[in-house]
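for the recovery benchmark. tokens below, seq after
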């Protein structure tokens, strides 16, 4: 259910560790994996990771190239 609400993430549950894991499914300079004991906590960590990645992105002109 959470992976449907949070598109761009694959959500897994580890029975042995009893934790939820979120793996980003969008391009990133490095792998982004977050985990938490609860679904609510995992969702918060995923939102925090998204915010951090957005803040670290280069300005739009650098990513898209400048018009000549």
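predicted aa per position
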């Amino acid at each position: 259910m959470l992976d449907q609400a949070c598109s761009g993430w694959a959500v897994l549950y580890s029975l042995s560790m009893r934790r939820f894991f979120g793996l980003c499914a969008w391009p990133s300079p490095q792998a982004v994996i977050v985990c938490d004991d609860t679904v609510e906590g995992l969702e918060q960590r995923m939102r925090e990771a998204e915010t951090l990645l957005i803040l670290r992105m280069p300005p739009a002109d650098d990513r898209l190239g400048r018009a000549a």
